[in-house]
Design brief:
Helix content: 40-55%
Structural class: alpha+beta
Shape: globular
Number of strands: 6
Order of helices and strands: EEHHHEHEHEE
Largest sheet: 4 strands, mixed
Low-confidence stretches: none
Mean pLDDT: 94
Radius of gyration: 15 Å
Strand content: 15-25%
Amino acid sequence: MSKTHYVEYRSDGFWGYDVAQGILLKHLADLAEARAEELGLSWLKEAAQSWRAGAVFYGFASSCIKESWSAEQMAVFVDLVGEACEILAAREKIPAEEITLWPMVDELHIFPRGAKEVFTAPVVELGRAIISLIEGSLPAPPAGTWWCFGFPEGRTTIRKLE
């Protein structure tokens, strides 16, 4: 299983650490489920299911950010990511025991890759990078590299293979 999954929106993107993506997706799903009953937000119920699956299988890759969403749906998504970042920023770290207890899909849980705890700052940085990606304000990485977000040591780059 790869440690990273590509986060893409409108032919741009970056790589993100799977543990951080799982944690962010779990918080997005929780927030979406809480708001899905609001008028006009029933689509969040299906999105939350996709985000829980993404938390354990494929991160933000595939169906977690849909380019087919309306401008209003994308604005809700961006707001949810921002709210998840605020919630996560209120904590310094999350013990692995807590992470592995979160219900995701069936009996599957987020795998913290042997970490005893996960610091939230890199997860928040990942969330903010997703917002920047969607808003078109993510700075270009250094030439010949990809951005990588969510790793325990924070933002980094990897060399593009040619």
